TrEMBL record:
It comes from Nocardia suismassiliense. InterPro entries: Flavin_Rdtase-like_dom, NADH-dep_flavin_reductase, Split_barrel_FMN-bd. SMART domains: Flavin_Reduct (SM00903). One of its GO terms (molecular function) is oxidoreductase activity. This is Flavin reductase family protein. It holds the Pfam family Flavin_Reduct. SUPFAM superfamilies: FMN-binding split barrel.
Length: 183
């Protein structure tokens, strides 16, 4: 994808006038539960992946999703060069994958039994209840992160085969299983 197809935002954030420290903001955000996803992509150096709790659905028509990546992430350069990603919605049984993809980059794909490759080249993790393949639609640098907007081109929904797979949640700095869903 060319730079012209991925316009940067004209939006500029002024110097922080909020008076809130990063630590204060982080502490407050820890009390907002979020679903856990793992984003994977292919790069010339091999598979890349990272956990992301910032996933959001943006639009139904066209089907757009988003997530953020920190400017300090070891995966950022590969993501900025990527044309597509796979976003895996982790189930409550996949705490081990969330931890694996939060570790150093070398450890993430070291166990070949945990993943395979799509015909389009992206790595796909086994056993995730749902995964989406998305092409990179827009990259928007904001603050200390980049907002990634993806156009969904494929949906793999495995929830009928594993109906008990509730989502894995991240809350207050820890992974959690929901206690009750569907009521």
């Amino acid at each position: 994808m060319t730079e012209a197809e991925r316009p940067a935002a004209d939006f500029q954030i002024p110097d922080d006038l909020s008076g809130i420290t990063a630590e204060q903001f982080r502490a407050s955000m820890r009390h907002y539960p979020a679903g856990v996803t793992v984003v994977t992509l292919n790069s010339p150096k091999g598979p890349i992946g990272f956990t992301a709790t910032s996933f959001a659905s943006l639009s139904l028509a066209p089907p757009l999703v988003s997530f953020n990546i920190a400017h300090t992430s070891s995966s950022l350069a590969a993501l900025l060069d990527a044309d597509s990603v796979v976003i895996h919605f982790l189930g409550e049984h996949q705490h081990h994958l969330a931890q694996r993809f939060a570790r150093t980059a070398e450890d993430r794909f070291s166990d070949r039994s945990l993943w395979t490759t799509l015909d389009t080249g992206e790595p796909v993790l086994h056993g995730t209840p749902i995964w989406l393949r998305a092409t990179i639609h827009q990259l928007i640098p904001l603050g200390d992160h980049t907002l990634v907007v993806g156009l969904v081109t494929r949906v793999h929904d495995n929830t009928n085969e594993t109906p008990a797979a509730a989502p894995l949640l991240y809350y207050n700095g820890r992974y959690h299983r929901p206690t009750k869903l569907g009521d």
